[in-house]
Write a structure and sequence with these properties.
Blueprint: E1 5-14, E2 17-27, E3 32-36, H1 43-50, E4 58-63, E5 66-67, H2 73-78, E6 81-84, H3 96-101, E7 107-108, E8 115-116, H4 118-131, H5 148-161, E9 166-170, H6 178-193, E10 197-202, H7 205-211, E11 214-219, E12 222-228, H8 234-241, H9 245-258
The protein binds adenosine-5'-diphosphate (ADP) and magnesium ion.
The site of magnesium ion (MG) has 2 residues, from helix 1.
Protein name: Sugar ABC transporter ATP-binding protein
Pfam families: ABC_tran
Keywords: ATP-binding, Nucleotide-binding
């Protein structure tokens, strides 16, 4: 069986800045691929290529075994790739259920009599959110009243409801506390268990390791490898993230200064 997505030696430059160099990994249905790396490592560049925001210069991108190159985010979405950006495209004063649909609300009637079907919309959003086990008191409340974690959860429920095959989350836990991070990771795992291929971008190996099936570690645009879980421990992943040898050298240096 083909992977859902195959990233094959992809490279991307912005003018003279090489943002990605020969990066490879896969995303399988029902699995989580984690992309880890420090600031500037190239994480966002990689997901922007998957999401149709940018195009790669070299290498290949395959979806269900076919070479693809998305001309726009709309095209990626039409092929089943849903991306939840860190800043979340929500309208804070609009209700949760309207944000859930954002432009694809159900309607009744035809022609000039066509109008928003509020009752169906509210009920569909409520059920989809509840189906994910998310406990929201009221889908009429403005989305701006939700916590950051709850907003991420609604965005995940939305992608599942609209039939996404691949769900990409860019640093969903970056601004969250420990407890809320746990909640978001739990819903991410639910999307995985429903058969979606999930791409989780994070710089926290402790968030990645429990939910991840494979780990792509980037450093200054280069890949340190795409590891299956069985082939890497949390300790080793943490060491790679921290820049391994660099950190050890720093430790030596600092010890030298104090002692
Ligand atoms: N639109 C852009 N134009 C020029 N350089 C960019 C652009 N976007 C990112 N870069 C550069 O590419 C590198 C990788 O950035 P990015 O993919 O955002 O990393 P990350 O998400 O891991 O922090 C950085 O050196 C960054 O400055
Ligand atoms: Mg980024």
């Amino acid at each position: 069986m083909n992977p859902l997505i195959e990233v094959d030696r992809i490279g991307k430059s912005y003018g003279s800045v090489v943002a990605l160099r020969e990066v490879s990994t896969v995303v399988n249905a029902g699995e989580v691929t984690c992309v880890l790396g420090d600031n500037g490592a190239g994480k966002s560049t990689l997901i922007k290529i998957l999401a149709g925001v940018h195009q790669h210069d070299t290498g290949r991108l395959r979806l269900d075994g076919q070479d693809v190159r998305f001309a726009s985010p709309r095209e990626a979405l039409d092929r089943g790739i849903a991306t939840v950006h860190q800043d979340l495209a929500v309208v804070p004063l609009m209700s949760v259920w309207r944000n859930f649909f954002l432009g694809s609300e159900p309607t009744v009637g035809a022609g000039p009599l066509r109008r928003l079907d509020r009752r169906t919309g509210r009920e569909t959003a409520r059920r989809a959110i509840a189906d994910m086990g998310i406990d929201l008191r009221d889908v009429e409340q403005p989305v701006g009243t939700l916590s950051g974690g709850e907003r991420q959860c609604v965005a995940i429920a939305r992608a599942v409801h609209f039939g996404a095959k691949v769900l990409i989350l860019d640093e969903p836990t970056a601004a969250l506390g420990v407890k809320q991070s746990g909640v978001v990771l739990r819903y991410l795992a639910q999307a995985r268990d429903r058969g979606l291929g999930v791409v989780l971008i994070t710089h926290n190996p402790h968030h990645a390791y429990p939910v991840g099936n494979r780990f792509l570690v980037l450093t200054r645009g280069a890949s340190l490898g795409s590891f299956e879980k069985a082939d890497i421990t949390l300790a080793e992943l943490t060491r790679q993230m921290a820049g391994g040898e660099e950190l050890e050298a720093l430790e030596h240096e600092l010890r030298g200064v104090s002692g």
